[in-house]
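Q: Could you write out the predicted structure for this multi-component system? I'm mainly interested in how the pieces pack against one another.
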Amino acid sequence: MVAINENYLKLKAGYLFPEIARRVNTFSQANPDAPIIRLGIGDVTEPLPQACRDAIIKATEKMGQRESFRGYGPEQGYGWLREKIATHDFQARGCDIDASEIFISDGSKCDTGNILDIFGNTNTIAVTDPVYPVYVDTNVMAGHTGAANEKGEYGGLVYLPITAANDFTATIPSQKVDLIYLCFPNNPTGAVATKEHLQAWVDYANSHGSIIFFDAAYEAFITDPTIPHSIYEIPGARTCAIEFRSFSKNAGFTGTRCALSVVPKTLEVKASTGEKIQLWSLWSRRQATKFNGVSYIIQRGAEAVYSPEGQEQTRGLVNFYMENASLIREKLSLAGFAVYGGENAPYVWLKTPNDLSSWEFFDKLLTTCHVVGTPGSGFGAAGEGYFRISAFNSRENVETALARIVKAFG
Amino acid sequence: MVAINENYLKLKAGYLFPEIARRVNTFSQANPDAPIIRLGIGDVTEPLPQACRDAIIKATEKMGQRESFRGYGPEQGYGWLREKIATHDFQARGCDIDASEIFISDGSKCDTGNILDIFGNTNTIAVTDPVYPVYVDTNVMAGHTGAANEKGEYGGLVYLPITAANDFTATIPSQKVDLIYLCFPNNPTGAVATKEHLQAWVDYANSHGSIIFFDAAYEAFITDPTIPHSIYEIPGARTCAIEFRSFSKNAGFTGTRCALSVVPKTLEVKASTGEKIQLWSLWSRRQATKFNGVSYIIQRGAEAVYSPEGQEQTRGLVNFYMENASLIREKLSLAGFAVYGGENAPYVWLKTPNDLSSWEFFDKLLTTCHVVGTPGSGFGAAGEGYFRISAFNSRENVETALARIVKAFG
C-alpha cells in the first residue's frame, strides 16, 4: 500500500495567508461594494522598476534570435548575476562572500523550505515566536516535530518568545539547539538586531556547532546605519550561517520571482563517520538535482537592480514604502495603539485594543474599516493579541485605511 | 551536533549532465579550436516562439503600471493558464481533467523531485533501467534506497529493464510496487507506449493500490495518432496516476521555465489510521508552503502557446526537431548503427559499435568527431553499451555532426 507523508496531517488548518484570503473573499462576496484595502500579506503594490522591465524586455528579444537564445542555464544561476550580488550586497559591506557561494533561486520561501533537504532528521530546531509560518510548517512536513497543542505549538520545536520585553529579539537559549531560524529585519514584528545581538548568536552557534538560517529578505528597509544587513558582517558567521535574500521586497519581484541563498564554502558539518562535509557541496547537489535555475529573462531583470538606474529606482521604492510605515506608526500611535517596528522594516506590529484576540481584531478591522491586516497569532502562540500592518500599498490607500482606523478606534 | 542528510553521501559521482559538461570543458580547453556540436543534454536551440515573446513583453509592460502590476499570484498558477491547459491538452483529447487539478510549476525536474515530499518513506519504488536520473537521485536523497552497487544500482529500488527485447517498454512487474515512474515518449530511449501497454499499467496500479508518476514532457513529439499523449486517456488513470508536463521541449522553455503537474482529485491513499487522504490536498499544501508560483510574466508567455499563432509556432518547432530526428535515424542506420526511437521523440538511442562502453563511445565521439552525446550508462546499468543522440540543434549542426559520424564510423 502506498504510504503518504503523514506529517502533513499534523499541520494546523490552512497556511495563514490562504486563510486570510478565504475570510476576505467571504466578506467581499457578502459586501461587494465594501472598498477593501489590503495591508495584510506582505505583497508589494508599486510598479516593477523601469530598469528591470527594460532588461526583461531586452532579454526576451534576445530569446528571439538563435545566436542569443538561452536554454538551460546553470542551476545555481548565471555568473554575471552572482558576481553583481557578491560585489554589491556583500563585499561592499565588508562581507567575505564569493560569487560561487551564491545560489540564485525563485524565492526565499522555496529556499527556506528546501534547505531542510540537506539536513538530517535528528536536529533540535529553534524558531522565534511569533515567526514566519513557513519555517515551522516545513519542519512539520519534514517530520521534525510532534503534533501541535491547542495553542498551535508543535512538539519538539524550541520556541524562543520575542516580545516587547526583549525588544522582539530572542534571548539566546540556555539549552543546546542545532538549527536556528533568525529573521532580521523581522517578519512579522519589524524588529532589527544589533551587531552585538547577532555576534552573540554567531558565538553561540560556533561554540555549540549549530547552524543559523538567517533570513534577510527585508534588509533593504534598514535605515539605521549601525544595524547589519547581512549575518556575514559578523565575525565568525562564515562557519555557522546560511543567509537568504530576495528581490521580492526591494525591487517589487513578488510576482516576478527571484531570490538567493548564500552558503559559504567554509561551512562544514561532521557526518556520523566523523568525515567533515561541506554544506555548500550538498546544497549544490540538491539544487542541480531538484531545480533547473531561474528563468534567464528574469535573472536579467534581477541583474538590472544593480545598474545605477536600478539602484536609484529600488531605493525610491523602499523609501516610498518606508514613508508609508512612518505614517502608519504615527497615526496608529495617535489612535492609542501600542506600536512596534516600522522604522527599519515595512511592517508595523501593534497590540490589539481591549484584549481582543488577533483574529477578533482581524474580523473587526475587516468589517468596520474594510482593512485587511494579519493576525499576530497566525505567526505563533506568542503573537496572540498582536497584529501586523504592512506598509506595502499606495499612499492614498494607506492614508484612507489609517483615517478609517483612527475614526473607528481613536 | 547538527545532523546532515547522509543519504546524499550515497549518491554516485556527479549528476550525469554536470559530468558531461566537465568532460567537454576539459576537452575544449585543450582543443580550443575544435568545432564542438552538442547533441548531448536535451536542450532546445531554436528561438522562443514569437507569440510567447510578444506575450512576455506585453506582460512586462503591464508590470510598469500600478493598475496592472501583479505581485504574489496563486501558488498553483493563474486560472487563465490552468484553464487553457485543461481545455487544450486534456479535455480536447477526452481526458476528464479539470483546471483545478493542474499545478503550474517552474519545471518537471522540480516537480518529479518535489512530489516525493507528500509520500512516506516505506514505499517500494520502481523505475525503468535506463531511466531519467532525477527519479533515482531524488529517491536516494530522500532516503528511499540503500547504497549503490558497483553498477550504480541502489539497494531497495526495483529496476525494470527496458531493452530492444521488450521494445523499450518495461514488463509489468510480478512483485508488488507502490510508486512507479513511467516516461513516455521515453527519455532516453525515445520509445513510446501503446494504449494497451498503458492500460496494463493502470490496471496493475489500480489493483495493487499503486501510484504511477507519468512523465509526459515529450508528448508533443508523438507523430503516431494511435499513441496516447496523456495517461488520462486511459480508463482508470484518475485513481492511480499523477502526470508531469513541461513547456521546455515543445515551446523551447528550457531557459524560460514553466511546467505543470496534474493531480486528479479522485486520487486517494489510505493513511495508517484508515482515513482516505486526497493527494491533491497534500500537493496543494506542499506547493502553497514551499513554492510561490511561477513568474506572472512567464505564465503569460506559456499562455501564448495556446493562441493560434502559438500553436502554429510550437508545431513548427516540434516538426523541425523531428525532421532532425529523422535525419539522425537515417544517417546512423546508413553508418551501420542499430538505432531506436526518434520517430515519436526527439531522441535517438543507439547501440555503441565494437562493444565500446557508453563512456568510451562518448570520449571517442568527442575526440574524433567533436560531437557530444549522452552515454547510455548515465541513465542506468542497463543503458551500458547504448548512447543517446538528441535532435535538438540546428539543421546545419545536425548535418555536420552526422557527416562526421558517418565518416568516422561508416
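A: Regarding packing and overall arrangement: The mean pLDDT of chain A is 96.
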